[in-house]
Amino acid sequence: MDHTAQNKYQILITDVGSFLGAALAQNFLKAGHIVYGAGKNHPQEEILENTNFTLIDIDLSQPLPSHLPNFDQIIHLSSEELDENKISPHLTAVSTNIIQKAKNRQSKVIFVARITSSPNFIENFILNEETKEYLKLFLMGDLYGPQMSLNMGQTQNASYYDNNSLTNLIAQAVKTDKVILEKEGLVIIYPTYIDDAVHAFNKFMDLPSSKNMRFIISDDPVTSLSAAYTIQNSAQINLEKEVNLFFAGPETHERPKAQPVVRVSDLGFSPTFNFQEGIDNTLTYFKDKSIAARPIIKNHQAPIVHPQVPSSGKKPILHLKKPANLSLPKFNFKVKTIILLFVLAVLLVTAKTGTDLKFGTSALKSSQEKLTSGDFAQAKIKAQNAGKSFASARTEFKLLTLPFTYIFPKKINEMSSGIQSAQIASLSLANFTEGAQILSIDLASATTPSEKKTDFNLEDAQAALNKAYFQANYATELAIIAQKANFAKSKFQTLETNAKSLSSYSQTALDLSSLITEFTGTDSKKNYLILLLNNAELRPGGGFIGNIGEISFDNGKLQDVNIEDIYALDGQLKEKINPPVQLTQKLGVDRLYLRDSNWSTDFALNAAIARDFYKKETGKTVDGVFALDLSFVQKLLEEIGPLKLDDYNETITAANLFDKGEYYAEVGFFPGSTQKKDFFASLTRKLISQITADLSSQTSTNNKTPWLGIVAATSESLDEKHLLLAFDNPILSSYAKSKNWSNLLPPSSFDPADDSNATKDFLALSEANVGANKVNRYLERSVNYEMTIGRDADLVAKFTITYKNNSPADTWPGGTYVNYLRVYTPLRVGLDSYQIDGRTPDKPKNPKIPNPEDVQTSTEGNLTAFASLIEVPVGKTKTITYTYRIPKNIKLETAPTYSLYIDKQPGTEKDKFNFTFNLPAYLKIDSVNDNQGISGQQTYTTNTDLSKDRQFNIKISKK
After folding, report:
1. 52 three-class SS
2. For residue 849, is pLDDT > 60?
3. Which helix (H) or strand (E) holds 616?
4. Cα torsion at 509, 515, 519, 521 (round to 10°)?
5. What confidence tens digit (pLDDT) does each residue in 284-298 have?
6. 3-class DSSP assignment, residue 111
7. How many CB atoms lie within 10 A of CB 283?
């Protein structure tokens, strides 16, 4: 339904009296629709008094009475617990009856469930062909916001949308002066602000049902401990009171259950409120309602305490109070003796603190080294020891600084946060090590020849990695706080960087654990096509396809890896397929083969074409396609070290990979020769063998597989598009596309045509080396993009790209860079000017004979593309400039944000990128990517690189 249309629609909302139900009812009523509400609790008076609202008292588990209309949409707010393995036994009669409405095509239904619902339920739900067209699933995070319930579970028949982990924390902060945390504060919370939830409904209700499952959150998941800190800080400002944090019981070593990994970038919509803003708005609302008690603020931050469990088994909560002013008692020995003993105690504690910090730092560094070398057992022990040392140092630091706590509370807290950051980072590293060890054992099982089916232990691995991920994020937050103290700032900056890296590695390992069973086919055979790309000869898809491979699995076991020469394979193609005209003009190619098929930067499209060629040439079908270039192989070699190829009496390193690869691939090559295939086959087999070496004995100190480095190399290569993936399996395919591993053009997370929340701008480059050389090894490239907002908030873009050809000679592998360049922009862009080295190319004298330098404009999907042929001779520099207008205006009243997404081409390296944003005199910048450091200015300039995709969100306003 179009909420902006004049047509009225009839909507039924179950549990209409809940927080979410009432908000949705208000939203639809405001849009002029007719709303019916059901449920045990009634909404507020303003809804009941609306003439377009009807409260119906019916049993929804029974067929709807005939006097009710046929609803256009039923929104079922389910809060039931769903079974781990099946759907029907734990679906209530109400849910079953409403789902039947979708099956019978009587109404379109949105089923709203918890984000932590059983994966089996979700899979069965979204793959159910009976309901696919008429039934959608919205997985809702922890909902909160103004008008939420403060009853903390005391209300009879309270729904999940009224009481969840987050609302419980907020309610405690509003109604009391303490927040009690369960399970050591490691409960995962998915913050979902009420306005964002309603916005998501408006956006997704009427989208085509091809994607009938949606996640709805406002911000990336956080631990309850991290959320409590945000609430505590906000309460000081917005409730004018101090809230103390406590753990509900003694320290526990119970592993948290693995939770779904959902991030804002995966949603398909842009939430308006981050977690801090949402909490501030919520607490301000309750303050204005005079609900919150307001004790006097104390100028210190109370610590979190682990109360001890007494013999009675109860778990008391300790209340820490600021000590009163104490007078010194009179002792029967001299004052000098007291002072001497005090000074001695301070010195001893200071020395112990320094020793603990030094030992903790050394142990943490040693743990990283052990993990890098693959010694998991020692890495975990070292990380745990580091955590204990930092914990002791933090306790000792508090004792030393106690006299100053009430004089410089903020400074002391910031310095303490630095030690705590190191402690949490150590625990994160220990958990990452544990998860990586379990995962590597699974990988060892999958790559070790055996008739026994692989039995993956993913639950334990994911629990450890998930804990590591959130601990690393928390350590990052603490390190940022510590830097504000301006004490040992460089060390805390390093700690922040390392914690961020650990978070990234944990996320990559979690991704791997989520995919491994589907990828290896634990109950079936899986075959994958591998495209080996030479990015020294750049093509739009990442590089010239020099070799192909096939990797096969059966019952979770790696069966075989075969490498083939692309020319031998293409020789089997019988069908004639016309190539792109540029290949014909420059290379004399009269038919298209697999080796030239990756003509798009969209790998999902390239993968589909490659599969088709592979089937035509071999008769084989595959379950997915991978593309990896020499830069990815180079990254792996940097981590695992040199590889000795006995067949060639060569040692291949990261430094000589390109030279040796070109030598054995090109020098002395003739049609029918197998030397290229043999070399890369030998290299690939050796690489896989080296990576999987010693995995069967993970507890052995002899294991030297550098898993941390391998995870880092893989994570970086996925981000930098040196490794691309596309799958047939719908779960794997959706996952890969959501992570942009398939390099969709444009990415699924950014729609250049959707200007509802921001004015979208898009830029993507596509280059094809059609000079039959490897000149991209010697090429320097720099990109400049200048966006000028006009008087009427219109958009004028100036794109400039400069090439410098540093080839040593005009002979192979260098030479002239013959480049078919395509520049992708938003749809219906009009080109104002095109220049080469500052001049406009001459118009052809004979219009029938096109000038190679002319620009061809085309429409590709929802993008406009400008294309031209550029030649850069050896030792020369060439600059190309496009100036164009984007047919949009920034909506200053409703969506005052300019959003630019720059899509990096696969196979390219860290090209320089300069971005300039200009505003007219009556406008100013409020923030750039939520950073308000340049607020009030009219120009923003940044110098970065295109090692990966970049995005800029610039909020503006009138002066």
Report:
1. coil
2. no
3. helix 603-618
4. 120
5. 888 877 655 444 333
6. strand
7. 21
Tell me the CATH architecture of domain 143-191+219-308: Alpha-Beta Complex (3.90)
CA-wise closest residue to 262 among 216, 208, 204: 216
Give CATH for domain 759-958. 2.60.40
303-336 residue pLDDT tens: 444 333 333 333 333 333 333 333 444 444 455 5
Summarised one tens digit per residue, pLDDT across range 127-164 is 566 666 678 888 888 999 998 888 754 444 456 667 88
Give the residues across from 766 on adjacent strands.
Answer: 822
Burial class of residue 60 in the structure, from the number of CB atoms within 10 Å of its CB (0-12 exposed, 13-18 middle, 19+ buried): buried
- Alpha-carbon torsion, ordered 185, 282, 216, 48, to 10 deg: 130
Q: Which residue has the tokens 């850069």?
A: 872
Whether 797 shows a pLDDT value over 70: the answer reads yes
Q: How far is it, in rounded angstroms, from Cα 476 to Cα 496?
A: 5
Q: Are 134 and 102 in contact (CB under 8 A)?
A: yes
Pairing of strands 73-77, 142-144: unpaired
Average pLDDT value for residue range 901-922: 96
Tell me which residue of 693, 690, 709 sits closest to 642, measured CA to CA: 690
Helix (H) or strand (E) holding 832: strand 830-836
CA gap 398, 186 in Å, rounded: 24
Q: Per DSSP, what are the bridge partners of residue 923?
A: 958
Give the whole-angstrom CA distance, residue 712 versus residue 436: 12
**What count of other Cβ atoms lies within 10 Å of the Cβ of residue 351?**
11
- Using CA atoms, how far residue 351 sits from 172, 192, 242, 345, in Å, is 41, 47, 34, 10
Name residue 542's amino acid.
G
Helix orientation angle between 165-175 and 224-238, rounded to the nearest 10 degrees: 30
Measured distance CA(92)–CA(81) in Å, rounded = 10
Q: What are phi and psi of 762, to 5 degrees?
A: -140, 145
Q: Which residue from 414, 427, 430, 409 is spatially nearest to 492, judged by alpha carbons? A: 414
SS3 179: strand
Give the pLDDT mean for 609-633: 94
What CATH superfamily is the domain 9-140? Answer: NAD(P)-binding Rossmann-like Domain (3.40.50.720)
Q: Is the predicted pLDDT of residue 208 greater than 70, yes or no?
A: no
Identify the DSSP state of 80: -
Highest mean pLDDT: which of 179-188, 648-657, 801-810? 801-810
For every residue of 715-773, which 3-state class applies, written as one string? HHHHHCCCEEEEECCHHHHHHHHHCCCCCCCCCCCCCCCCCCCCEEEEEEEEEEECCCC
Cα four-point dihedral sign 199, 200, 203, 205: negative
What's the half-sphere exposure (Cβ side, CA atoms, 13 Å) at 706? 17
CA dist 377 and 363 (Å) reads 14
Q: What pLDDT, on the 0 to 100 scale, is given for residue 298?
A: 39
Beta bridge partners of 761: 900
Q: How far apart are the first and last CA of the chain?
A: 38
Q: How long is the chain?
A: 959
Higher pLDDT among residues 641 and 255, named by residue: 641
**Strands 877-889 and 779-789, bridge-based pairing:** unpaired
CA dist 374 and 708 (Å) reads 8
User: What is the SS3 assignment for 121?
Assistant: helix
Element (H, E) at 23: helix 19-30
Is the separation of the CB atoms in 499 and 425 below 8 Å?
Answer: yes
Q: What is the 3-state secondary structure of 564-614? A: EEHHHHHCCCCCCCCCCHHHHHHHCCCCCCHHHCCCCCCHHHHHHHHHHHH
Hey, is 808 helix, strand or coil?
coil
Q: Look at residues 727, 738, 628, 720 and name the one whose alpha carbon lies nearest to residue 683.
A: 628
